[in-house]
Amino acid sequence: MFRRSAITTLIALGLGVAATSQAQAQAAADRPITMIVTVPPGGSSDALARLTATALGARLERSVVVENVTGAGGLVGMQKFLRSPADGSVLLFINQSLLILPHLYPKSAYSPANDLEPIGIIAKVPMVLSVSNATGVTQLPALVDKMKKAPGKINFGSGGPGTTAHLAEALFLQQAGVKAEMIQYRGSGPALSDLMAGTIDAVIDQTVTMLPLHKDGRVKAIAVTGGARLAQHPEIPTFAEAGLPAFDLSIWNGLLAPKGTPGEAMAKLTSALTAVVSSADFKSRLALLAAQGPGEAESGPAPFRRVIAQEGERVAALAQSGAFVGSSPAAAK
Fold this sequence. Notes:
Elements: H1 2-30, E1 33-37, H2 44-60, E2 64-68, H3 75-82, E3 90-94, H4 97-104, E4 116-125, E5 127-131, H5 140-149, E6 155-158, H6 164-176, E7 181-184, H7 188-197, E8 202-206, H8 207-215, E9 220-224, E10 251-258, H9 263-278, H10 280-288, H11 301-320
Helix pairs in contact: 2-9, 4-11
C-alpha cells in the first residue's frame, strides 16, 4: 500500500513538474523578445539592430524589442545578457566587441566561444577611415606621412574601449607603423560630432554612420576596407589601393542566445533569422547602408561559431601585442 502510494505521488510530482515546465515555456513564447544592444542609440550597430528586430519580429509573429544596455564598453550589457533566462526570450545583438571585452576586462568571466549560443551572422559592414576637414588631409598616404613625422600628434576617436572602432584603430596603427593619441568616447555619436567640429582628427567606423557625413562634406573619407570600392561612393579608394593592403577589417554583426537555450527555441530563432537575412527586402535595406548579408554558406550557428573562433585568435594576438593598453572606461570622454 505504501509502495503504491509512493509511486502515485512520484507520478503526480512528475506530471506537475512537466506541467510547470510547459507553462514556463509557453509563458516565454508569449512575451516579447528582448534584444540587448550594448551600444547607445543612434550608432551604426543600433541602426542595424533595429532593422533586424523589426524583420525578425515579423517572421516570428512576435514583438522584438531593442534594449540599449550601455556602459564599460559594452560589458554592462554583456553581463545583463549572461544573467538572462535561457529560454529564447532574451537575445544579444553584438559585433567583434564580444571578443575584445575579455581582454580589456579579464575578470569579466565569460568565454565568447563557450558561454553563448550563436544564432547567425546578420550583416558584414566595411570600415571607413575619415578625417576632419580641419586636417587638410585628403589621402591616406598623406595622413600616414604626417603621423610618422609627428608621432602622437594626430588623434583618433572611437565609441569607447572594446568597440569595433577601437579594434579597427588599434589594428590600423599597428599595421601602418604609426602612433596616435586614442580618445575614447561614450558612443560613436559624440566622437563623430567632434570629428565634424575638428576637435579630433580621425575616426575609423562603419559605413552605416560614416558615409552620410562624407556625402554631405562634413568629413573626408579617405579609405574603405574590402576588396572593392563601394558602389555608392566609388571615389573612396580601398586601403589596398591607398597603400595599406594589410589592413582589411569588416565588421560582422550577429545574434546570440544564452548558453543552454532549448533546441526547439534555437531552431525557431535560427530558421527565422535565416529567412530574414536571405530575403530580398532585407538585402536591399542593407545595401542602402553599404552592408552585406551572409551568403548561404555563411548563415546559421555553425558558420558563426567558426567566425567567432577565427576572429577571436586575431583579437587575442592584437591584445598580446599591447594594442589595447591605455584604453579604459575611466579615460572615456
